[in-house]
């Protein structure tokens, strides 16, 4: 009965847990999701700027809807924690690892100098390897595009965002873009698995392998390998400039998009623009072991107040 | 008398049917004349590279239109294909001699061992600025109005350095190189372009919150150059926000200057919102040479279906050749060509498939030639 409740409430994620539970009872610590009485523990990072306001709105709505969630709030400090080398404390990270589910508000990153992006730190420390952003035209909010129904899945840990830059000589800067087989396979697996479980028919890999032959070539090879394991899902590869143009002319052509880090960033924001803006898009970071950290995609918008979309 | 009056009456009513542009330039609207130097009218040689896929179709279209206009250019044709290892040296010599080249797209095999010839050509000739002009064509319906964006993109370094290596099996690194020298000269070109073309705003596109040193250097150079042009407004925007703004409010952008990769994406997005890559003109320019080609997505040479049915869109290359004529200082030929093309588009009777019609390339070309005055 408990497993039936769990399965109904949490779909595929619980299937994986229960199957791993049954196969290796000692290796996986059983996660306690909500039974009839105990609420789910979730970590909440309100963030900067408009973050605290929208986090408050979320709590109110959830309370009104009587969702069984208990929030553990963590704030980003203003001192470097030596254990994590960033403003996020060790306790915050441990809390997410323990609860497995979290919600994050926007966190500001300084431009051109200063500390490393806190969003990036969270992703690296918790190994959140896939960023999933569904973009659907909202009925009732008219934009120029009415038939947008696509999901962008972006590799979240490597690629151009490794943060490895150095100045070779004065006036010459190099930045490294790293693509690994392991990370590409991971995100491709997740993309196809997502497509299958959500009944999506096509997965498109976005790349620039005609110019960056080895790096994006490796990404494409991994996607092709995974595609062979899912013969009923159509797989195609699209060069990114072509993809941008097709998205802007006819977004109905795409279904699930999987891409490396930088292209994913740009394309997912483009798609958000198609449906009405960053204020309307939900997003979730998936980590190994089933960690899910949902977030608001927009920035901290220090100059405005009052947006409600952390709820999505 | 009525019998004689009827045909005269019919003639009068036929002639007075309105067209969107005057048949002869009205002396009251013509500009003060352009005074050439003696000998400027001698035919200029231009290197022509038909390219792959739809390339030969569209370059043929340009040749036909130039013939019909009796423009003072003649083409030296060279066959280059995307799967060659290097651009043949005689082609490079020809471009160095002529200083101007018109080219169709070169298809780069995906994931293969060949470096893109488009990129090679740009690096050999040091064509450091790539320019795409994206604007709404009257008569072509798009979802966005009031678009008039010029994307100026650094063409030689950045992510397209081609420096990749496999560290260990399963881990590949690619180097993105940004230098102050290149960033400065592209910023200077962008502001100079804005100044010479009466543009009001230059926007730098970057991702310096993540790539702090690399894009930070690019931004520094742009800021320095901006101080020398106080009459031109300058602002900066992060690339993902930029794409989003392009899709929702494109009228806020005027001239955009970007490093290599972002420029590719931004140019294609801007071209898409303004009508598609089949109609946007563009080119690559350096200190000594200029190569004109389809504005955005020059590596996309279409698929076999379009080539076989001969339904490629020649408008982009025709408008780019008008830019080339202006570059060669033949402004009235350029004006005539542009007017004819715009008239054909606005009439809407001859449009290729990507604009929603069903004409072939040849039909569009014939319509343009018929509309030349």
UniProtKB/TrEMBL annotation, chain A:
Keywords: Oxidoreductase. InterPro entries: IsoCit/isopropylmalate_DH_CS, IsoPropMal-DH-like_dom. It holds the Pfam family Iso_dh. Residues 41-311 form the Isopropylmalate dehydrogenase-like domain. Belongs to the isocitrate and isopropylmalate dehydrogenases family. This is Isocitrate dehydrogenase [NAD] catalytic subunit 5, mitochondrial isoform X2. The gene is LOC107404214.
From TrEMBL, chain B:
Transmembrane segments: none annotated. Residues 45-368 form the Isopropylmalate dehydrogenase-like domain. GO terms for cellular component: mitochondrion. Keywords: Magnesium, Manganese, Metal-binding, Mitochondrion, NAD, Oxidoreductase, Transit peptide, Tricarboxylic acid cycle. GO terms for molecular function: isocitrate dehydrogenase (NAD+) activity; metal ion binding. It comes from the Eukaryota. One of its GO terms (biological process) is tricarboxylic acid cycle. It is found in: Mitochondrion. SMART domains: Iso_dh. Belongs to the isocitrate and isopropylmalate dehydrogenases family. Performs an essential role in the oxidative function of the citric acid cycle. This is Isopropylmalate dehydrogenase-like domain-containing protein. It comes from Ziziphus jujuba var. spinosa.
């Amino acid at each position: 009965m408990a497993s039936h409740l769990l399965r109904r409430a949490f779909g595929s994620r619980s299937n994986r847990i229960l199957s791993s539970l049954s196969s290796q009872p000692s290796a996986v610590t059983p996660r306690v999701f909500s039974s009839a009485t105990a609420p789910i523990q979730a970590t909440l990072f309100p963030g900067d700027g408009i973050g605290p306001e929208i986090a408050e709105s979320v709590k109110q709505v959830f309370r009104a809807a009587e969702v069984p969630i208990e929030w553990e709030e963590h704030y980003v400090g203003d001192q470097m924690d030596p254990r994590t080398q960033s403003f996020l404390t060790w306790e915050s990270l441990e809390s997410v690892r323990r609860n497995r589910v979290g919600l994050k508000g926007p966190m500001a990153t300084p431009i051109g100098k200063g500390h490393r992006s806190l969003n990036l730190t969270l992703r690296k420390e918790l190994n959140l390897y896939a960023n999933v952003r569904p973009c659907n035209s909202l009925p009732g909010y008219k934009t120029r595009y009415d038939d947008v129904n696509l999901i962008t899945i972006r590799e979240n840990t490597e690629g151009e965002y490794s943060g490895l830059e150095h100045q070779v000589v004065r006036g010459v800067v190099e930045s490294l873009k790293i693509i690994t087989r392991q990370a590409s396979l991971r995100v491709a697996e997740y993309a196809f698995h997502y497509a299958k479980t959500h009944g999506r028919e096509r997965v498109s890999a976005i790349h620039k392998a005609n110019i960056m032959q080895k790096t994006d070539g490796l990404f494409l090879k991994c996607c092709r390998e995974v595609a062979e394991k899912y013969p009923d899902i159509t797989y195609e590869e699209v060069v990114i400039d072509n993809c941008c143009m097709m998205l802007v002319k006819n977004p109905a052509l795409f279904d699930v998009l999987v891409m490396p880090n930088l292209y994913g960033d740009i394309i997912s924001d483009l798609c958000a623009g198609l449906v009405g803006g960053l204020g309307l898009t939900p997003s979730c970071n998936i980590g190994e072991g089933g960690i899910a950290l949902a977030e608001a995609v927009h920035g901290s918008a220090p100059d405005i107040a009052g947006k409600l979309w952390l709820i999505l | 008398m009525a019998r004689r009056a009827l045909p005269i009456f019919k003639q009068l009513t036929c002639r007075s049917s309105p067209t969107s542009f005057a048949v002869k330039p009205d002396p009251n609207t013509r500009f003060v004349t352009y005074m050439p130097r003696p000998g400027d009218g001698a035919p200029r040689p231009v290197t022509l590279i038909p390219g792959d896929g739809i390339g030969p179709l569209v370059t043929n279209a340009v040749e036909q239109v130039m013939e019909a206009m009796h423009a003072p250019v003649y083409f030296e044709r060279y066959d280059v294909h995307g799967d060659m290892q290097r651009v043949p040296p005689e082609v490079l010599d020809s471009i160095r001699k002529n200083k101007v080249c018109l080219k169709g797209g070169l298809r780069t095999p995906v994931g293969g061992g060949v470096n893109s010839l488009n990129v090679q050509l740009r690096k050999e000739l040091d064509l450091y600025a790539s320019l795409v002009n994206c604007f709404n064509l009257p008569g072509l319906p798009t979802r966005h109005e009031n678009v008039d964006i010029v994307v100026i993109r650094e063409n030689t370094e950045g992510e397209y350095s081609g420096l990749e290596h496999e560290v260990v099996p399963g881990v590949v690194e690619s180097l993105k190189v940004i230098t102050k020298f290149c960033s400065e000269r592209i910023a200077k070109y962008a502001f100079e372009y804005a100044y010479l073309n009466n543009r009001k705003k230059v926007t730098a596109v970057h991702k310096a919150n993540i790539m702090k040193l690399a894009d930070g250097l690019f931004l520094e150079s742009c800021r320095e150059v901006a101080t020398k042009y106080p009459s031109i407004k300058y602002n900066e925007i992060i690339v993902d926000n930029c794409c989003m703004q392009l899709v929702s409010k494109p009228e806020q952008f005027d001239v955009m200057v970007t490093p290599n990769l972002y420029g590719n994406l931004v140019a294609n997005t801007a071209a898409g919102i303004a009508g598609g890559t089949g109609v946007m003109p563009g080119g690559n320019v350096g200190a000594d040479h200029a190569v004109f080609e389809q504005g955005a997505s020059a590596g996309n040479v279409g698929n076999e279906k379009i080539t076989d049915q001969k339904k490629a869109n020649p408008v982009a290359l025709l408008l780019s050749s008008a830019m080339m004529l202006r570059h060669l200082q033949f402004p009235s030929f350029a004006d005539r060509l542009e007017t004819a093309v715009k008239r054909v588009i606005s009439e809407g009777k001859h449009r290729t498939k990507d604009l929603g019609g069903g004409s072939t390339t040849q039909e569009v070309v014939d319509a343009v030639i018929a509309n030349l005055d």
